[in-house]
Amino acid sequence: MRIGELSARTGASRRSLRYYEEQGLLVSSRSPSGQRHYEEEHVQRVRLVRAFLAADMSSGTIAEMVPCMAEPSEDRARQALEIMGRERARLSGAIDSLAAARDALDRLIEDNHAYLARSADDAAPEDTARLRRGTPVPRGR
Q: How close are the terminal C-alpha atoms of the chain, in Å?
């Protein structure tokens, strides 16, 4: 497939695909006229690269893992395993931090719902009706 089809199938721009190639994250074959050609397995490779980049891995870190995926050897496998372990630990820490932030936000949402429920209970009947409709209650009531 040509670069436009790979771009369409993966959501990566043509510019990104050329960048991935420059960084050694992706390898294409070339036609006699110099056009890039990709195989079916490149779709998965690009999706993997995009997932890693979205997880805040650097292209350099990804490139350190790619040779083991493309041309496995015991040395490359050991090196890649060390890098993958380090990145997994970093991602796990980020996930834990995001989960803690989500939990704190959930508590604030619950507190806000409870506050609004108490306010509705204490409000005048016409204010309660406004709150239920989502209409603001005039200040000073």
A: 68
